[in-house]
Amino acid sequence: MAVKEDKKERIIDNAVGVFAEYGYYKATTAMVAKAAGVTQPYVFHFFANKEELFMAVIDRAFSRIYDTFADVNAPADQLVKTMGHAFTQIIQTHRDEILMVMQAHAISEAGIREHVRSLFHTIFESLTLKFERAGITNAKETAAHFISTGLLITVSEVLNLPELLHGK
Prior knowledge:
By secondary structure, the protein is mostly helical. It contains nine helices and no strands. Helix 2 crosses helix 3 (40-46) and helix 5 (76-93) crosses helix 6. The N and C termini lie far apart (54 Å). The relative contact order is 0.11.
């Protein structure tokens, strides 16, 4: 059983790079299979279709973000800044996953769109709760601003446009 799970994880690992490079619409399960060193039917052994594979990949990316934010401990006056640094670290270490997160909301398939909406909502709710527990006033607004800043940071990073953040 562990061998199958290892291969499933290898498929997901390689799918991250394929989806990040080609986008959801141009990426194929054949490309993912080739990158993972398995056959395309073996990909379908674990995932019913490309949409299900994409959702598994996006789940991993959002889980990493969620877990990273959950693990941040800092005083209220340093919490947002510390979490921002943690997010910047994710961008550096898991760039392809962050590229996937940036693409995900633009995919028109209803199942993916709803899934991504739910994941973003979960992050928003967890940030709101974290900020409330830390005693940060206007926790919902702070969570919304934190997420929007994270999206802007990601766009700036992906497009190599630091002026979006720094105005220079």
